[in-house]
Amino acid sequence: MILVSAAIIRNTAGEILICQRGAGGSCAFLWEFPGGKQEAGETAADCLVRECREELGIEIDIVALIEQTSYTYPDNKIGLSFFAAQITGGVPQKSVHQEILWVRPAELLQYQFCPADTEIVGRLAQGE
């Protein structure tokens, strides 16, 4: 199983940060929450702090663990940890993603997310 951490980051307007994957690999051009794969010896929270720093150039604080779940793709199984987080430094920069956007929760359903994210997307869109 591949362990993945993802951040639900809200701005002061209540919008949520989403990122569009680039070409290649699974979920090409689909949307996801910031985050990535845990490395050996790394906690889920440490992974998320590192990934946000590397991929978006931001520093975050983890607020709370929202949910842990798993999803089975045809080629592998993913263990997901979703965290509420807040930006404490920097402004999100597009470096590895095709696009990054701040969207209102109700607008999340207008974007095609990676299959592993669709359940939490639905709940966030309903205001949970």
From TrEMBL:
Binding site for Mg(2+): 35, 55
Record-level Gene Ontology MF annotations: 8-oxo-7,8-dihydrodeoxyguanosine triphosphate pyrophosphatase activity; 8-oxo-7,8-dihydroguanosine triphosphate pyrophosphatase activity; 8-oxo-dGDP phosphatase activity; 8-oxo-GDP phosphatase activity; metal ion binding
Domain of life, per lineage: Bacteria
Annotated ranges, domain Nudix hydrolase: 1-126
Presence of keyword Magnesium: yes
Catalytic activity: 8-oxo-dGTP + H2O = 8-oxo-dGMP + diphosphate + H(+)
Protein name: 8-oxo-dGTP diphosphatase
Organism phylogeny: Bacteria, Bacillati, Bacillota, Negativicutes, Acidaminococcales
